[in-house]
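To: structure desk
From: M.T.
Subject: fold request, one chain
Message: Could you run this one when you get a chance? Sequence is below, nothing fancy, just the single chain.
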Amino acid sequence: MNKSVYLFLVIFTNCKESKAFSKPVVTAEVKDTLISKTPVQKDIYINKEFFAGDELTDVETFKTAKTGIDSLSYSIYKERNTKNYIFSLEKFLKNDDVEKYRITDTVNLKSADFTVHAETVGNSKILLLKSNQKLLKKWTFETNTNTLHSGSAIFQAAF
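Reply: Done. Structure tokens follow.
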């Protein structure tokens, strides 16, 4: 009988101790650090639809150009009060009175020193973003009888 009571106490104690260790502990110091590192930029993000000439509050337009692939263009935005840039790949949607675009992808850049190059390989159109001959990102779009279908963006390299 003593063995079963002893066994019960051991199991009960172990279960109670394991519950105490299963709860994560987050200190206020860690929370403040995480919040302060979160960017507050609200103008440029994936799937945002916008009209040409829309007013931007967190960034200013640095450069805009066509890619030569279907209705894709790109823009470079400079973040206000920083030295950072955002590369934005944009798809033209329509032109009622003002051109409308959708941001399909973004890349954060440390400088505006980069090149954008489009090439055709077989049934695919490839868009390359490079800085100092280093590949930063590669997008592949498959074509099918003169119709361009948005392909998957293939991530090749990062900062």
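Reply (cont.): The longest strand covers residues 85-95. Let me know if you need anything else for the meeting.
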